Amino acid sequence: MGDLGVLPDHLAPHTAAVDALGELIIGGMRVSELVRQYGSPLFIYDENHLRTRMREATEGFGGGRVIYASKAFPSVAMARLISEEGLWWDAASQGELEAGLRGGVQPKRVILHGNNKSFDELRMAIDAKVGRIVVDSFDEIDRLDYLGGSASVWLRITPGIEAHTHAYVRTGQQDSKFGFNLANGDAHRAIARVKASSHLMLSGLHCHIGSQVFALGSFRDAIDVMVTLAKDEGVEELCIGGGFGVGYLRDERVPTIGEWTSWLREAFVAHGMRDQQTFIEPGRAIVAAAAVTVYTVGVIKEIPGVRTYVAVDGGMSDNPRPVLYGSGYEAFTSSRLFDPHDMTVALVGKHCESGDVLVREARLPTDLQVGELVMTPVTGAYGYAMGSNYNKLPRPAVVLVGHGQARLIARRETIDDLFRLEVDG
Ligand code: LLP
């Protein structure tokens, strides 16, 4: 990796390097060159980083199965990497399912999630012969009965574990829209119903306690509860979901995905589970740090004694996480990483909202200029995926870089694209 100047190693994509002048290079490509070619703002994904994370996850988890939670970044190019690296694909909608299949993931390695799957989604999954359907409600069992096709299912259980994370991304507690409640007997009733079905095969149980979780203890508690239930019910497979936290900030040191997966494997083994019975579903821990978003500075507004605002050409439409969850990010210039970054500013977007803040207290060079490139690292998960066209802003382009080459995997939206749904356009 070499000396990255002010960019901390743990926030940088794997192949990040900085040249003698302080310019960031990813996958052998100069960031300024990429922006010249593909425009700004730009998402840059490091292919080597993605593949390395996938391999660390599968190696750490032994012979257990690693399912990529595609919602974090559900692109066809990503599905291709997932299938090449032998992971499975978790889809939570028809669109995510289609992305996996278009990317060449074998249907038997696709699992379908969702707390309100439509008839169409269920029919598509049955027709495509996806590996598992993760059933979330009694209404869904009714729908599957009505459709009648055979399917291998897991039941999503709400194990009553309070994961320590943001309330919006907490899912394992009693009061949840997801899964069958264990404490009130719904889980047992659902298990009995599926066992009695002639066309559904109950092959496993699933739970997901939340996202951006750091406490290994929360996962251990979930494994304890779920293994006991699986053994009592004679169910073979167990998926403990995803949610392994990643670091976004300079002082945030967190376990690697290799560490997460080997700890989880140990916890399963301690309960006598065999590798082939166990599954995990990481999303963020695979893609988050693989990408940076590069913006161009358009306005520097100093309000003496109050604050300096640095406005860039994107914002909450390409990264809604700060607005939604109060998530923190860091920002750096991408062209002079050896210069001190000691001016504290608010890095804001170009949307018509005061809340459109990307980094509340970003540290950038004191002589920052309009026109310079600024990047936010660790934007690979739930950024592009949750992006919008708010204020009729076109979505940025996405490139995948590696070995000195860049491949455009999502082109920038045009102004015409913004009107393609409008009947009167
Ligand atoms: N499995 C299931 C059933 C899930 O619902 C999720 C995430 C995952 C796996 C993957 O979780 P991960 O490993 O990525 O944490 N938009 C929020 C995160 C929402 C997560 C939803 N479910 C954010 O930007 O923080």
Automatic annotation (TrEMBL):
PROSITE patterns in the cross-refs: ODR_DC_2_1
Modification N6-(pyridoxal phosphate)lysine occurs at: 71
One Gene Ontology term of the molecular function aspect: pyridoxal phosphate binding
One Pfam family matching this protein: Orn_Arg_deC_N
GO biological process, one term: lysine biosynthetic process via diaminopimelate
Entry binding sites for pyridoxal 5'-phosphate: 243, 281-284, 382
Occurrences of domain Orn/DAP/Arg decarboxylase 2 N-terminal (ranges): 49-288
Domain of life: Bacteria
Family: Belongs to the Orn/Lys/Arg decarboxylase class-II family. LysA subfamily.
Name of the protein: Diaminopimelate decarboxylase
Organism, scientific name: Ferrimicrobium acidiphilum DSM 19497
